[in-house]
Amino acid sequence: MRLWGGNYSGDPDRDFWEFNRSFPFDRRLVTEEIAASRAWVRALARCQAVTADEADRLDGALERLAQQVQADPACLDLDAEDVHSFVETRLTEALGHLAGQAHLGRSRNEQAVTALRLWIRGAADRLREGVARLVEALAEQGRAGAEAVMPGYTHTRAAEPITFGHLAAAHAWALVRDHERLADARRRANVLPLGSGALAGTALPIDREALGRDLGFDSVSPNALDAVMDRDFAAEFVFACAQLQTHLARLAEDLIWLSGPEYGFFELPESFTTGSSLMPQKKNPDALELVRGKAARVDGDLVRLLALMKGLPAGYQKDLQEDKEAVFDAADAASASVVVMTGVVAGLGLNREAMRRAAGREELMAAGLAVALARDGMPFRQAHALVGSLVAEARQTGASLREVAGRALAVQSPGVAARLDSVLDAEQAVRAKAARGGTAPDAVRESLAGAVERVRRR
Ligand code: ARG
């Protein structure tokens, strides 16, 4: 059934009809479309645009349709133009002419954006729950490895010792921001467009505030023309997904390279790896690589939305129908990635021996040694240069930094020379970084607890 055509003499071109249809993808909005329709019928009844009896019959039929699509998703296989005409077609089959009353004064322009806002609201909530679980999994591993010393890297070169908990907390806090960003995006999406008509507003005496409350919206759109053309709530949600996916990709990258045999810091859970068809020894980190790869895809979704909106004149344009797949794709990629990442993190094994061996290289304590010298009275730049020359000497002679420094500092800084063993000890170096946000085990535990507390907040 077409919702238009009174002014037409024939049918649309078959190829164009297919090209024009959005039902193959916007059927995902069917639950939201029915919920919005039921609320609209209630609003019509409140302003006596339909009788209480008509409203009851419309509501009953819409409720049955909702149950039917729940129970039998195959009933969505229909040659409908879009999800809005699908619902109206089904309603017409059930109620005849009365069905049209559910659409009294309502434009698909506002219906499309209302359903999308409702969908994003639910998707943001689901995604936030997933992110919270991932943060909890990271915190649990981080607590287990709060004392496990490993090298921290800059430029992929070992820099200073850190604890595994510190690395876990770093990734957890990035995800805390995503959790909050999704809440922000949800807030901006949670505005009622219904009652905007096609662009000019509605002539029916609808109480839009009551309608908004009925659908759980925080407020009502203040301009009907803006309401039907605005998709920045969608772009913002997709940006939140893209930023989240970027954080997942960075976590994936750390787990990929540091679990490789050359480092061997982590053991990936086997059930999240795959083997090679040729090389029998392989266990490849495909799950993590796909998480990383999907970041490109979600970035594409964001660019797609931004490019879609630029240059559109005021008002609804059919271009806007292209918004939905980008939103669905971004949400699907991010939520599947969050689930897989949570499984990988929860199943991660820590190889403490390999970590501590790599972190025990005395060079990693060079900065700590320079700071110790400066605190013993040597100007910091001088201390930095001195330690640099000691490192170079140790490398050239093959002697340990401990030996070389012991000799040189006996004269230049006897106080530090006496404490060299502890200054060059990775565990002590880590414990020294006790200020808030540092890698000392207690600071790490506090940071992890803070991250969990933030994602448990509503
Ligand atoms: N299916 C369309 C969309 O997804 C909604 C209908 C648009 N309205 C119109 N007058 N063409 O945006």
Order of SSEs, N→C? HHHHHHEEHEHEHHEHHEHHHHHHHH
Give the CA-CA distance, first to last residue: 44 Å
CATH class placement of the largest domain:
Mainly Alpha
Query: Care to count the β-strands?
Result: 6
Provide the CATH architecture of the largest domain.
Answer: Up-down Bundle
What's the CATH H-level homologous superfamily of the largest domain? Fumarase/aspartase (Central domain)
Percent in helix: 55-70%
The Rg value, from CA coordinates, equals 30 Å
CATH topology of the largest domain, by name, is Fumarase C, Chain A, domain 2
User: In percent terms, what proportion of residues is strand?
Assistant: under 5%
Show the helix and strand layout:
Layout: H1 14-20, H2 23-26, H3 30-46, H4 52-71, H5 83-95, H6 108-144, E1 149-154, E2 157-163, H7 164-189, E3 191-192, H8 208-214, E4 219-220, H9 224-229, H10 232-259, E5 266-267, H11 286-309, H12 323-346, E6 349-350, H13 352-359, H14 366-375, H15 380-397, H16 401-412, H17 414-418, H18 420-423, H19 426-432, H20 441-456
Parallel strand pairs: 3-4
Antiparallel strand pairs: 1-2, 5-6
Helix pairs in contact: 3-4, 3-6, 3-8, 4-5, 6-7, 6-12, 6-20, 7-10, 7-20, 10-11, 10-12, 11-12, 14-15, 15-16
